[in-house]
Design a protein that fits this description.
By secondary structure, the protein is α/β, with parallel strands linked by helices. The two termini are 29 Å apart.
Amino acid sequence: MANVSPVLSIVRDEPASAAIEVAGLTHVYDGRDGKVPALTDIAMTVGAGRFVVIVGPSGCGKTSLLMMMAGLRHQTSGTIRIQGRPIDNPDPERVGVVFQEASLFPWLTALDNIEFPLALRHAPKAERAERANQMLNLVGLQGFGARYPHELSGGMKQRVSIARGLVQDPPVLLMDEPFAALDEQTRMTMGHELLRIWSQTAKTVVFVTHSLTEAVYLADEVLVMSARPGRIIGRIAINLPRPRTYEMMATDIFGCLRDRIWQQIRKEG
């Protein structure tokens, strides 16, 4: 393995403001045999413009936490603030969400799928078309706007999904294992493309994954969650320079960071 100094710092400076603040968050749901604790005492702060990845064993509550930050589920107790204000319901002007499945409407073209959130808000047609075309170009799908979902590859569908999540220009983007269903080669390409998009938009990103390689490659910081009830047991800064390159995956420091995350998960799993 090639050697890269672990003291290399990321390109971005530490942000002055917090985009996401979670404090004392606990969630208990009703199970068949009574109350089941899912999350306990979650506290996290994500600075504006940062890329944070959440990892942990299956069933630890990663997706539940993300959905609460999106306002799609309600926690039992604790607070979530996005851009300085509580979020109790979905607010696409503050938070965009990209799910594991692209979930595109099969009867709409790629461009119409991207436009759809703006259509729900009754934005003027010309404004919708201009914004959707901008997002289509941003995700690298120029010339594919008239294609229907069945005419697109898995990676292209996810690009459309990302464009739809960005079309209302939310400052925060939440992503729940968006590349999990893709083959390894496409997944690596999509990760690289996501970093390009992030660098151009300066969004705050919280990304859930089971892939430790993906976590290290994408993140400014990785949050490690314990087995259920999920809690944050580790915060690992990824001090690799940006822009990231595929060659970094073969370095000693990359392997050490991945192993450190794995050891924390293994100890708690």
